[in-house]
């Protein structure tokens, strides 16, 4: 803490400082590696206040996730993107990394996260897929979300290979990714989408 | 004891690399120490620094060798695509890559991507007159889906009100169907 920053005081300020600190730290490390002391330090509050206001660090981290999720759903002030855009998570690498860390460390059970745009996407999928059962639609939206998150998380690993110095190839493949994402959500044929067809028929089939 | 001036057997070096792959499949590299690596490999801690500048250098080397290892062992030297079922079952393939990707400094933009190159080569052989955009999009999409599986599937399933214990087989089957559809769009067959 620098001298000119006043330490948070009172219930509202302390709670806010802790939740904001959790939201910042969750993108840097798996939740089980964020100690109560680190949280208190980052928030500039006394360690004992975590227990006093939240009962423990888990509740602070949970609220930190909720905060990240709300910020993502709200989108930027200038409206340049919204959470239901294809691959919108690339605009919130902090939330994306927090999800990945929490999920990889197996801590996800304790934080119960919902991808914030899922409800909207699910509703969209239901409208066009009235003959499919609810479980299948949910599974497909889940797979589409995996593709969305993975495309954003691994962008820097895979993008140089996709473009290999050719920006037109990068753009063309990005367009196919958007078609693939759509085909996954709607239960269409992702192979046809990769080939550039907006094929209205034929979904992926199970094995056998 | 005192007479041993010869290099320790190279199998200790291999054991350390393998230990790095195993540990990095489960945890971020920043949480893995030289002692963790020595213990996992069953070798003396001093050997970490005999072969490598640091534990981090050892892990960077493991990451560098990983792509070639996948091509050699899981793609039969580049003659067939990675079997998606095997890829989903073995965290050493994509769990490893995910952990490396989450940490800075493990990947340079210009480094070779042997698994992507090998898969693209297979696609081109199978579909020689096909569209290069389709080829690259297919290889990238398959890879991204497989990379995303170990990280996001359970989280997403729960978030969507599915129970991985109950719906796990349906999710897996649907996911494999997606991969088969992508592969078959360029004429490749995978799995049974």
Number of separate domains of chain B: 1
Q: Which pair of protein chains has the largest interface, and what are the residue counts?
A: A-B, 58 and 59 residues
Mean pLDDT of chain A: 87
Give the CATH architecture of chain B. Answer: Orthogonal Bundle
Low-pLDDT segments of chain B:
1-5
Radius of gyration of chain B: 19 Å
Describe the structure.
- The complex is a heterodimer of chains A (208) and B (192).
- With 208 residues, chain A is mostly helical.
- Chain A is built from 11 helices and no strands.
- Chain A has helices spanning 10-25, 36-43, 48-54, 57-74, 93-104, 108-111, 118-128, 134-153, 155-163, 167-186, 190-194.
- Chain A is elongated and about 60 Å long.
- The N and C termini of chain A lie far apart (62 Å).
- Chain B is mainly alpha-helical and 192 residues long.
- Chain B has one domain (12-184): Tetracycline Repressor, domain 2 (Orthogonal Bundle).
- Chain B has helices at 10-24, 34-41, 46-51, 55-74, 84-89, 91-102, 114-126, 132-159, 164-185.
- Chain B is globular.
- The interface between A and B is large, with 58 and 59 residues.
